[in-house]
Amino acid sequence: MITAITLIRTERAGVNTVAEQLTAIPGITEVYSVSGDYDLVAMIRVSDNEQMAQVVTDRLRKVEGITHTETLIAFRVYSQHDLESMFSIGMVD
Hints:
Layout: E1 2-10, H1 15-23, E2 28-33, E3 40-46, H2 49-59, E4 66-73, H3 80-87
Antiparallel strand pairs: 1-3, 1-4, 2-3
């Protein structure tokens, strides 16, 4: 599984419309509205680089209202939730 985080700026009135369009794209698993320099954050999870390229360079380009994107490819995941479940294997509550 390949994961990417895409930071998205939209036209001022387009945040909700863009978010709805993004959730319809296969491979985009979550879209968050955020504060700060970006308007939305999209989580992309696909099985290979070809699918990632398709989502990022083809599908995102076609969404009206996006003015800028920055995509970050994840190398490793560090999650407290994952660590807790790993160490609790075999333990009884």
